[in-house]
């Protein structure tokens, strides 16, 4: 194994990590998002090590990569928000616009968005698309039992996120539109 590429990458990483982290922190909404951006930048740098310029030009090249990664990250956030927009709209229809309900609705939306993409997808397929466990299993390439287990866990994580957000549900039906169950 040739250690030269590894040593070069480590040197560039040590020299540029702080500057790239500061760059990302100033452009992202959270430190976690900034950390994701920096990790992706260095993943690209490793994959394209042969394209990485030598010397002082390396950090400039990495800034260019970081700019694109931040843009991709923002587009991803917009897609996630767009995917949750129907949920937000339906919750608004269920709860109305009173200040109390608005705060609860915001907390519910935030709790839902705090779930992993996989959990949100499972819950959405059941609640909003009306798919059965078997249909979800077919769509996701999983067994029906795997869907049942994952759905159970996703519901528990949602319940935990709702409890942490101070939303106390009196019945499971409050989160489901008429005629649908979670």
Automatic annotation (TrEMBL):
Record carries keyword DNA-binding: yes
Sorted UniProt keywords: DNA-binding, Sigma factor, Transcription, Transcription regulation
SMART domains referenced in this protein's UniProt entry, alphabetically: HTH_LUXR
One GO BP: DNA-templated transcription initiation
One Pfam family named in its UniProt record: Sigma70_r2
Domain HTH luxR-type: 112-169
Keyword flag Kinase: no
GO molecular function: DNA binding; sigma factor activity
Transmembrane segments annotated in the record for this chain: none
InterPro entries registered for this protein in UniProt: RNA_pol_sigma-70-like (IPR039425), RNA_pol_sigma-70_dom (IPR014284), RNA_pol_sigma70_r2 (IPR007627), RNA_pol_sigma70_r4_t2 (IPR013249), RNA_pol_sigma_r2 (IPR013325), RNA_pol_sigma_r3/r4-like (IPR013324), Tscrpt_reg_LuxR_C (IPR000792), WH-like_DNA-bd_sf (IPR036388)
Database matches in NCBIfam families: sigma70-ECF
Family recorded in the similarity comment: Belongs to the sigma-70 factor family. ECF subfamily.
Name of the protein this chain belongs to: Sigma-70 family RNA polymerase sigma factor
